[in-house]
Design brief:
It holds the Pfam family PHP. GO terms for molecular function: 5'-3' DNA exonuclease activity; 5'-3' RNA exonuclease activity. The protein is α/β, with parallel strands linked by helices. It has a domain of 189 residues: TIM Barrel, CATH 3.20.20. It is built from 10 helices and 8 strands. Strands 1, 2, 3, 4, 5, 6, 7 and 8 form an 8-stranded mixed beta sheet that branches. The model has no long low-confidence stretch (mean pLDDT 93).
């Protein structure tokens, strides 16, 4: 059984519609896929409608968190999206994404880059029509305006952490985020812990990981395409020390990441251990 627990569709910052993500997952030989768009579950229904017989979709989301000046990403699975406190926080996060994106456009204009808010929202809508406007949409507008060669270059020059158009935004404390997911009946894993933003190393501190584990964290995504061998060994060790399962995922974003679904996978026994406590909702199994 091949299991990938981290992917994105066009309702956040991926390039493929949710149903197309399912098609790519099948082509990659996957049996189980978690759709984990940023701070939204807007693509889950469309993905679920495309699930064929024998395939399993795990409803999920990647939550934006921050600790000690750096970003922390939390993968939440199988929670009740209508849980009042979690739903309220997600509305706040999404609203602040818009405010942040507008601020970035203003800074780009101040720097002489001809990006308009109308074009950014058009790009976000053209890609998928979701309710999340993110930096990849702004980056595409920057490329269109001729101020960067490609999306990565736009991040490096303009909208990456510390760049001239970068704007901070509201993000949950990761320990509180774990508590919210667990209170909503969900389970969660720490995403790509060696690849955050805003700290000297870019890594989540082991102290933060320990505090998250005490709050109910279930796993650590040690096997990620951006992690080197030493980082994988290190975070597998942290997971072992904290009694957490090790997950592996592609963090696929469609064209932006080279359609890499299934390039990293989670062991079936780790998957079963991770989702065992979930009570918020159930995986979608094709019949």
């Amino acid at each position: 059984m091949r299991i990938d627990l981290h992917s994105h569709s066009s309702v956040s910052d991926g390039t493929d519609a949710p149903a197309a993500v399912i098609e790519y997952a099948l082509a990659a030989g996957l049996d189980v896929l978690a759709l984990t768009d940023h701070d939204t579950m807007a693509g889950i229904a469309a993905a679920a409608a495309a699930v064929p017989r024998g395939f399993t979709l795990v409803p999920g989301m990647e939550l934006s968190c921050a600790s000690n000046g750096g970003s922390v990403h939390l993968l939440g699975y199988l929670f009740d999206p209508e849980s009042p406190e979690l739903a309220a926080e997600l509305r706040r996060v999404r609203a602040d994404r818009v405010i942040r994106a507008q601020g970035m456009v203003e800074r780009l204009n101040d720097a002489g880059v001809g990006v308009t808010w109308e074009r950014v929202t058009e790009i976000a809508g053209d890609i998928g029509g979701g309710d999340v406007v993110g930096r990849p949409h702004i980056a595409r507008a920057i490329v269109e305006a001729g101020a960067a060669e490609d999306v990565q270059d736009a991040f490096d020059r303009w909208v990456g952490h510390g760049g001239p158009a970068y704007v901070e935004r509201y993000a949950l404390d990761p320990v509180r985020a774990v508590g919210l997911v667990r209170a909503a009946g969900g389970v969660c894993a720490l995403a790509h812990p060696a690849r955050g933003e805003g700290t000297d190393t870019g890594a989540v501190s082991p102290e933060t990981a320990e505090a998250m584990a005490q709050a109910g964290l279930g796993g650590i995504e040690a096997d990620h395409p951006a992690h080197d061998d030493a980082e994988r060994v290190y975070w597998r060790g942290i997971a072992g020390d904290l009694g957490l399962v090790v997950t592996g995922s592609s963090d696929d974003h469609g064209d932006l990441s080279g359609h890499r679904l299934g390039c990293e996978t989670t062991a079936p026994e780790a998957f079963e251990a991770l989702i065992a406590p979930a009570t918020g909702t159930a995986p979608v199994v094709g019949a």
